[in-house]
Known about the structure:
The chain is mainly alpha-helical. The protein has three domains: 1-45, no CATH class; 50-175, Tetratricopeptide repeat domain (Serine Threonine Protein Phosphatase 5, Tetratricopeptide repeat), CATH 1.25.40; 186-268, no CATH class. Helices cover 64% and strands 8% of the residues. The protein has helices at 50-68, 72-85, 90-102, 106-119, 124-136, 140-153, 158-175, 186-190, 193-203, 206-220, 227-230, 233-250, 252-268; strands at residues 14-18, 22-29, 32-39. A three-stranded antiparallel beta sheet has the order 1-2-3, with no helix packed on it. A hairpin with a 3-residue loop joins strand 1 (14-18) and strand 2. Helix 2 (72-85) packs antiparallel against helix 3 and helix 12 crosses helix 13. 24% of the residues are buried.
Amino acid sequence: MKGTKPVCRQCSPVVMLVSGIGRMTFCVVKKKHILISFQNDIVPLSNSVPEDVGKADQLKDEGNNHMKEENYTAAVDCYTQAIELDPNNAVYYCNRAAAQSKLSHYTDAIKDCEKAIAIDSKYSKAYGRMGLALTAMNKFEEAVTSYQKALDLDPENDSYKSNLKIAEQKLREVASPTGTGLSFDMASLINNPAFITMAASLMQNPQVQQLMSGMMTNAIGGPAAGVGGLTDLSSLIQAGQQFAQQIQQQNPELIEHLRNHIRSRTFSSSTEEHS
Length: 275
């Protein structure tokens, strides 16, 4: 009966929303309700009762606490229980996406972001978290699109701006015909607390010290100046691209570890507040 034309033009139609069925329009003729049109384009209403909604919100708060404690598996469990009680709440899916990303379950994180967006297409945080997961999967073009959408909805968000720039830079590196994917922006790294922490940690590794000492001996054409001098971050920066290329050639696994460490710390360094 969809699209049925009204049979009565002299009365005011009465519209009734029927959960899970659609929109029914009635008019009253001789004290009788006569159906004059029907549309089944109504999104089914949530079956959640107030008690369920309240319990779901409590579970969400518990999940947020687990996130602060870095207990991400427990956080996923709490958000999942909240979703079961109130499946039409975009926040629960988005928060679970954040926990999934922390567990490196990026595909699941993207699916949760998509569900959140399906419920609330103007939810900027869902687009932002989708960008994080896509970036971690090296899907930089899609990540750029997600961050751009997040910024369209929340233009003043510095985190989205920063992550968009990083994704765009990664996309350029991948697209470059001469790009090796290794290109390091040393100026940015020196100001990156995550890199400084990671570099200091690596310097304590005897294998890393031996590797760097040998490379520096070859680079300067003489005996190594001693690994003690290399513990200064400025020495690492002076070596620059040549240093990074030598590491890539001699120990590709080390450079991959470096890249993954910086990527994971950079995209999660900004403290996210969970709704």
